[in-house]
């Protein structure tokens, strides 16, 4: 049985990262982006360069257990966060968790920059009642399946 050290088999064969490594990396990126943190800031917090953070986020480098714990502490999430939803995806990080959000094979819309910006802006609204009304409006527009301009014009009448 061959032994591994630093991602290299005893026979010097490089062990390639798996879909799980890519998924964990995407979850690190998701949380970092939700917090509005740069790769440089995350790297400084855990003692890495931004290039190393990039490699972790792309899944090019595997994340050790101790490093994952460090990321969890820095990003204020439990280690389990980095694996949430993995079983639902059957180890395929580019398949969406909710089939109704996008076509199979398209990236998860929850990881898109537009979605992250929307969530950040939403939580900057301090008035909880206003946030709730905005959520209700978005749900109504989505349910009506009409352009937002047409929906707003109809409600103003």
Task: Provide the fold topology.
Layout: E1 4-5, E2 8-9, H1 19-34, H2 39-46, H3 50-58, H4 65-75, H5 113-124, H6 128-144, H7 148-156
Antiparallel strand pairs: 1-2
Report on the architecture of this protein.
The chain is mainly α and 157 residues long. The chain has helices at residues 19-34, 39-46, 50-58, 65-75, 113-124, 128-144, 148-156, and strands spanning 4-5, 8-9.
Structure characteristics:
two-stranded antiparallel ribbon, 157 residues, single chain, 2 strands, mainly alpha, 3% strand, 7 helices
Task: Please summarize what this structure is.
The chain has helices spanning 19-34, 39-46, 50-58, 65-75, 113-124, 128-144, 148-156, and strands at residues 4-5, 8-9. By secondary structure, the protein is an all-alpha fold.
Please give the share of residues in helix: 40-55%
Strands of the biggest beta sheet: in what spatial order? 1-2
Count the strands? 2
For the terminal residues, how far apart are their CA atoms? Answer: 75 Å
* SSE arrangement, N to C: EEHHHHHHH
**Which outline best applies?**
elongated
Based on secondary structure, the structural category is mainly alpha
What fraction of the residues are assigned to beta strands by DSSP?
under 5%
- Determine the number of helices (DSSP H or I, runs of at least 4 residues): 7
Low-confidence stretches: 93-100
Largest sheet: 2 strands, antiparallel
What is the alpha-carbon Rg in Å?
A: 20 Å
Mean pLDDT figure: 78
């Amino acid at each position: 049985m061959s032994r591994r050290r630093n991602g290299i088999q005893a026979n010097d064969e490089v062990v390639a990262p798996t879909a799980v490594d890519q998924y964990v990396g995407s979850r690190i990126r998701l949380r970092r982006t939700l917090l509005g943190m740069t790769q440089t800031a995350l790297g400084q917090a855990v003692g890495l360069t931004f290039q190393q953070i990039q490699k972790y986020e792309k899944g090019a480098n595997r994340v050790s257990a101790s490093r994952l714990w460090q990321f969890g502490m820095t990003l204020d999430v439990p280690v389990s966060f980095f694996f949430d939803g993995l079983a639902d995806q059957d180890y395929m990080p580019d398949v969406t968790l909710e089939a109704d959000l996008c076509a199979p094979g398209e990236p998860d819309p929850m990881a898109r920059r537009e979605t992250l910006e929307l969530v950040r802006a939403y939580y900057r609204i301090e008035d909880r009642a206003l946030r709730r009304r905005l959520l209700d409006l978005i749900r109504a527009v989505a349910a009506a399946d009409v352009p937002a301009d047409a929906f707003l014009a109809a409600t103003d009448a």
